[in-house]
Specification:
alpha/beta; Rossmann fold; OB fold (Dihydrolipoamide Acetyltransferase, E2P); 5-stranded parallel β-sheet; 5-stranded antiparallel β-sheet
Length: 258
């Protein structure tokens, strides 16, 4: 089973509201979001937020505007990096919430469309921040590559962990819930972990998910080619397709103009 990618904290003192939010997250964002904790006060949530660094926080504005302002001051002081969504019964305050850097607001009574739309915006912003972090990483001096641990899925090598240098891997390919590692030496290793897992591990090592099926090592790409509307990256004579959705994100990641 694929692990959820982003943790969520809910700060709300109304149980019915919390249960509804959790229900919609489970229904609409299974394997993408998971609620790691729920708090009834802003003060009670601070230490947990500092400890687990959630990507998304959903806050009930009815807890008080002054408390919310204090909460955001702590966020800035501690350089906490998360997206937050405001839940409110007051439309005027909900609109003002955008001034406090909220990614979106949801009016009560909470409905599926409203919370789904707000969460999609939050996820988009989290992903965008990951790409920008990758760009910042690329602008630094050399990256120190480490070894990737691969638990092999072969029957003959079951329960064996291999260590492969990340800078020797040209690309990773999804094979159901497994991942095939292709190296510059022509070797292939099959891991029992999903491609999504390795995308997370290698995101700051110049590996980029150019397609739902492929994660490539941009350090070893010879060329990016676009012919007749179809795009691909090339490792010598090996062409790996770039999905239409990923093409503009790849160019942004590389800080290139199209």
């Amino acid at each position: 089973m694929q692990l959820a990618l982003y943790s969520v904290i809910i700060i709300d003192n109304e149980r019915e509201s919390v249960n509804l939010i959790k229900k919609y997250i489970d229904k609409l964002f299974l394997n993408k979001l998971f609620v790691v904790d729920v708090f009834s006060t802003l003060d009670g949530s601070i230490n947990k937020i500092r400890k687990i660094l959630p990507k998304i926080i959903i806050v009930n504005s009815d807890l008080g505007e002054s408390e919310l302002i204090k909460f955001l001051e702590i966020k800035d002081q501690d350089s906490l990096n998360f997206q937050f969504i405001i839940i409110s019964e007051n439309e005027e305050f909900a609109i003002r919430a955008l001034k406090y850097q909220a990614v979106d607001f949801v009016l009560k009574p909470i409905d599926e469309f409203g919370i789904a739309n707000a969460l999609r915006k939050a996820v988009y912003e989290v992903k965008k921040e990951r790409i920008e972090a990758g760009i910042r990483e690329m602008n630094k001096t050399k990256t120190n590559f480490k070894f990737i641990s691969i638990t092999t899925a072969s029957d003959s090598l079951s329960n064996t962990t291999l260590f492969v240098r990340a800078d020797k891997v040209t690309y990773c390919e999804a094979l159901g819930g497994q991942t095939i590692f292709h190296t510059i030496d022509g070797e292939e290793f099959i891991s029992d972990k999903s491609l999504g897992k390795y995308e997370w591990i290698l995101e700051n090592k110049f590996f980029f998910r150019i397609h739902n099926r492929y994660l490539v090592n941009l350090n070893l790409v010879n060329k990016i080619e676009r012919v007749g509307g179809a795009s691909s990256v090339l490792f010598n004579k090996i062409a790996i397709p770039i999905s239409t959705r990923k093409y503009p994100l790849l160019y942004k990641y590389l800080n290139l103009k199209r």
